[in-house]
Amino acid sequence: MNEKKVEEMTKQKGTLNTYKLDCTGCKACAADYQADNLKHAIARLNGVSSIKVDEVTGKVVVEFDDAKIILSKITQRMEKLGYHVEVAKTEEVK
Amino acid sequence: MNEHVTNTILVVLIGVFALAGALVSGASIAYAHEMSIVLTLIAVALGYRIYLHGIRSLLHGGITAQLFATIAIFISVIAGLVLPQASATGTAEAVGYLTASAIVAFIIQAGMTIEGYIIHRTRGALEKLIKMSPTTAKVRRDGKEIEVPIDDVRVGDTVLIKPGDKIPVDGLVLSGYSTVNQATITGESIPAEKKAGDHTFAGTLNENGALELKVEKIGEDTTLAHLIQLVEEAQEKKAPIQNIADRFTTYFLPIMAVVSTSVFLASYFTLGFEIALARTVTVLLVACPCALSIAVPVAVAGTIGNASMNAIIIKGGTHIEKLKDVNFVAFDKTGTLTAGKPKVVAVKTFGKNSEADVVKYAAIAEKFSEHPLSKAVLAKAAEMRLEVADPKDFRTIPGQGIDAHYGTKHILIGRRMFDGPISKEADALSEQVESEGKTAIPVILDKELIGVVVVADTVRENSVEAIGRLRSIGVKTAMITGDNMQTAKFIAGQLGVDEYYAELLPEQKVDVVKKLRNGNVVAMVGDGVNDAPALANSDVGFAMGAAGSDVAVETADVALLGDDLTKVEYAISLSRKAFSKMKGNIVYAFIWNIIALSLAAFGILNPVLAVILAEAGCISVVVNSALLLLNKPKAFLKAP
Q1: B588: which DSSP letter?
Q2: Domains along chain A?
C-alpha cells in the first residue's frame, strides 16, 4: 500500500505483546473492534510500513523504518491508546 | 489484502458453494448426492475464519461466540454425515443438516463482514480529518520551487501556498495576503485573514491569495495531527456504562455453556437424541453477546467522531456520561462570553464637531499609548479610515487620562483631566454608560468638550444564542467574572444568564463552582488557561478557542476548537442522545438474547433461524450506535 523509497533505509520488525488495560476479560467482538482501531492509529504514524494485530492473543507485529521512527515512539502511542505493551523481540528485515 | 474485501469474498464463496450443493443434490445426474456433500463441505470449510477465531480464543483461555458457532457447525456436519445411516429419513436428512451448517457459516461470516464494515465506518469522521492533510508540499530550495512529499519537508523550510491549495504544515506567514478557511480546525466557517506574522494550520484551505510560509510544525506535530491523536485516544476510553455490559458478557458465555448442556440433557431424556442435538445447536447459535459488548464502544466512537466534525473534542466516554447530566453551565465572562477586547461602541458629539473629528483628536492624543482603551480608539480610527497624525508631545497620567499637543491645539482625554463640570449632558451620559459597565472618555479640544467616546468589552455574537439554547434544553446558566458588579450586572442582563457572580479572584471562582455543584452537575466554560483551576473543579471543563493552545486542549474535558459557544449545548444534547442509545442498546440486546434463547431452548427456532436472529440483533445494535455519527446540530433558534 504505502511503498516508500527503500535505499539507505533499515527496515525493522518489532513483535509486541499487548493487552488492553481496562479490558474486563470479555473476548467477544469488541476485541476485533479494538484491534481495528489500534491498527489504524499505528499504521498512520510516519515511518510505519505495516502492522498486524492478532485480536485473539494481542500479539502485534509492526514493521517500520528506523531512520524515521523508533520503536519506543510506537509503543508510547499504543500506551496512550490504553494498551499495556511489552516488546517481545526486534529484528532487521532484509 | 484489505480485511473487508477478504471477508466479502469469503461470504460470496460460501454462498455460491452452499447454493451449488443444494442445487446438485436435487439434480438427476450421476453421483449427485456425493457431489452435493462435497460442495456443501467446501462451503462449510470456507467459514474457516470463524473456526480459527473460536479455537484460538479457546486455546488462549477465552470463550467466544465464534467458539459456540464452531461447535454448533461441527456438530451439524458430523450429524449430517453420520446420522443418515441410523436415521429413517435417510439421505434427505443428511443434506438437511449439512446444508444448514453451510447456511449458518454463511450468515455468521456475512454478519461479521457487515459489522466490521459499519464499525470501520464509525471512524469515518477521523478518516476525513486525516485526509485533510495534503501529502505533498511546494518548497523553495536553492531558489527553485519543487514539489516534495510531505515527509521530506523540514522545519524551517519555506513552503509556497497557491490560491486554492490545502496548507500542508503549521507555519508562519512570511509574505503574501490571503484568506484561509480554517473550518477543519476551528469549526469557523468564516475564513480567517492571513498576512505576514500570522500562523496557519495544516489541513486548512487557502482561498484566493498566495502565501509564503516558514514551516513551524510538520507531520505528527501539527495541530491537526494532535487533534486526530486526541480523538483516537478519546474513542478508546470507555464509558462507565460499558462496565455493566462487560460484567454481563463475562458471565454470559459460561452461563450459555451450562444452558446448552442442560438443554441437551433435558431434551435427550424426554425427546430423544436427534431433537436434543438440534436444540443444542440452536441454543449455541443464538448465544450472541456481541450486541452487548460492542454497542457502547461503537456509540462512544460515533459520538466522539461526530463531535470532532463539529470542532468539539470530547475526551472520552466518561465525559459523555457526565455531559448528559449537566444541568448548570458556568461561563467565564471576559474572553468567553465577551470578546475580551474593548471596542468603541458609541461616539457622542457636542457642538458642531463631527464623529470623525472626535475620534481623530482622541486617536492623535492616544497614538502612542499602550492602554487597551487607547487601542480601542485607534482601532476605531483605522476602521473609519482616518489619518492619525503624531502628537507634538503627550503625557499619560495613570488612572486619569492623557494631555497632548497637536500643532497649536491642546487635547485632553479623560474626565479627570478637566476641572469642574464639563457639561451636564456629558456628565449624565458618563453616569449612564458607566452604569452599563462601559467606559466614557470625554475628548476636550482647547478647553471645549467636543465629544465622548464610549468604550466597552462586547458580548460575542452568539453568546445570547448559546445561553438561549441551553435554556431550551433545561440547563441553567451562570456568569463568573473578576470584573466589577456594575459591568457584570449589565452584561448578565444582556445575555439573560440565570445567575452572575462578580468581583472574584481566580481562587474565588473555584469556590463559586464548588458551591454551584451543590445539587447540580456543573460544566464550566473558559479559555482553559487562566481559568484552568475552575475548569478542573467542575464536573465537565470546557475550554473554548482551544485550537492552537495545547495546554487548553490537554486540560479540558471537552475542547471547543473555535469560539462558537452554541457548541456547549450541542455537546450536551449529543451526549444525552448517545447515552440513551447506549442504555437502550444494552437493554434491547439483553431482552433480544433472552427471547431468542427461550425460543431456541423450547425448539421453536431451528439453527438457521437462530443464527439469523442473533446476527440481526447484533447488526441492528451496531447500526443504531453508528447512526450517532450522522447527528446534526439543531438550526438556530429564532430571535426572541
Answers
A1: H
A2: 11-87 (3.30.70.100)
